[in-house]
Structure formats: structure tokens, C-alpha cells
Amino acid sequence: MRRHLVAGNWKMNGQVADGVARVEELAGLAAAQPAACDVLICPPATLIVPLRGYVSAGAMALGGQDCHHDDSGAFTGDIAAPMLADIGCSHVIVGHSERRRDHGESNERVAAKAAAAHRAGLQAIICVGETKTERDAGDAIRVVTRQVRESVPDGAGAANTVIAYEPVWAIGTGDTAMPADVEAMHNTIRTELAEMISEESERLRLLYGGSVKPDNAVELLAIEDVDGALVGGASLKPADFWAIVRACPGV
Ligand code: PEP
């Protein structure tokens, strides 16, 4: 019912030549071993236009890593959602824990960014996840439930929104959440979404993110209610990223 999505978040890495080389390698892998899921690349904003011509048509989509909550204006250094749509993006990540931590983004701000993405016709990938302290205090479910309630804007549905559950302590650390904990959290998120957006919630995709690698992808992607992965570090290595893509059920 829900087609898996594997999204690569390249973060602040690479210059044009690196990005082109990576995407060309991915295109070769995609041609030899087709994906049974949707594949999205979120490069740094500077690489989106240079990579457009290399992303193999139909096989991969391009997305931004963040957008502003307004559509235009005096916001030095920011990028608006309509600008991302204009250069060929179909998705944008909002509320990544690195933005919440380094730029003080609140749930309300994340909801405003997701709403801006929707206005621009983009799918918003809304990130949520608890810190280690919150998990150790037994607070993970409460924190993430609140993030979902406050970060998902009115008008969200399966066609314009993806939720990525990314435990903060698992991002870039090599630690992954226990499959049972991932399953419990995804169930919680879907239950919360059912109250917020009713029947649409069953079709909305929930991704897991946090040190997804080729050697844990099969197990994580097979979990009920895990509809794909948001991949950071491993997305910089085409062979590893494609191994994760190929770990989606259905290949
Ligand atoms: C991320 O930054 O969204 C992420 C999941 O990173 P990593 O895969 O490196 O943990």
C-alpha cells in the first residue's frame, strides 16, 4: 500500500565535481540493479542545478535540505520553497535535528516550513526524534508525539508529507535504535497521525533515520510501519546507498 522511499541527505558535503561523480555512479547502479522503491537525493543547495542533468530521469528525485517559512523576502542566506520547486526539487527536508539544534528551530517553525513546502507543491519530509537524555529518562514517546502534533501543519496528508523518525542519538554515531523500539515509535506516530489527519494517515510514509547502513538496512526496512529510510553518512558512498535502496522489501 505504501511504496518505500529511500532518501539520501548529503548535508554540507561536496563540490560540483564530487556530486556529479556520485550521481553518475548512482545512475550506473540504478541501471544495473533497478530500485523497487522511490529514491531521493538531497544534496547541498549549490549542487541541485548542476546535478539536475545527471539524475537519471524517473529513477531518482531531487530535494532540498531545508527551506524558509516565507515564500520570499528579506531573509539573507535562506532559500524559499518555491525556489526549490523552481529548480526541479520535489521534496524538502524540514526540522532535521541538526537544524533544530544549530538554528533553534521549534516545532512551530518546522510546521511553518512544512506549510511553505506544501504551498510550493513540494513534499515535506518532517523530521522528529528524541535525544539520548530524553530516551534514557523514558520520555521518548512523549517527546516525539508532541513533535508530531506540533510540527505537522494543517493540510498535511499522504500526498505532501513524509515523517522521518530519527533518534538524535543515532544520527551519525553508528548506533541504531533497536528494531522493537523503532516499531513502537512508528506505531505511536501513526496513531497520532490517525487522530490528526484521519484516513490519510494509513497512506503517509514513515521513514527511519539514524546510522542506516547496508548491514542493518534489511532488518530496519522490514519493520512493520517503516516505509523507508533517511540516510546521512552512507548516502555519500554510492555502493552503500544503493545497497540500502536494494534492501527495501520487494527487490
Ligand atoms: C541524518 O542526518 O538524517 C542521518 C540519518 O544521518 P546518518 O545516516 O549519518 O546517521
Strand order of the largest sheet: 1-2-3-4-5-6-7-8
Architecture per CATH nomenclature, i.e. the level-2 architecture: Alpha-Beta Barrel
Number of E-type strands: 8
- What's the order of the H and E elements? EHEHEHEHHEHHEHEHEH
CATH topology: the name is: TIM Barrel
What global shape is seen? globular
Number of domains: 1
Helix content: 40-55%
Number of helices: 10
Mean pLDDT: 95
CATH superfamily: Aldolase class I
Poorly predicted sequence stretches spanning 5 or more consecutive residues: none
Structural classification: alpha/beta
Largest sheet: 8 strands, parallel, barrel
Report strand %.
15-25%
Radius of gyration: 17 Å
CATH class membership: Alpha Beta
- Distance from first to last alpha carbon: 16 Å
Catalogue the ligands: phosphoenolpyruvate
Write the SSE topology.
Blueprint: E1 5-9, H1 16-32, E2 38-42, H2 45-52, E3 61-64, H3 81-86, E4 91-94, H4 97-102, H5 107-119, E5 123-128, H6 132-136, H7 140-151, E6 161-165, H8 179-197, E7 205-209, H9 214-221, E8 228-231, H10 238-246
Helix pairs in contact: 1-2, 1-10, 5-7, 7-8
Bound molecules: phosphoenolpyruvate.
Phosphoenolpyruvate is lined by residues 9, 166, 171-172, 209-212, 230-234.
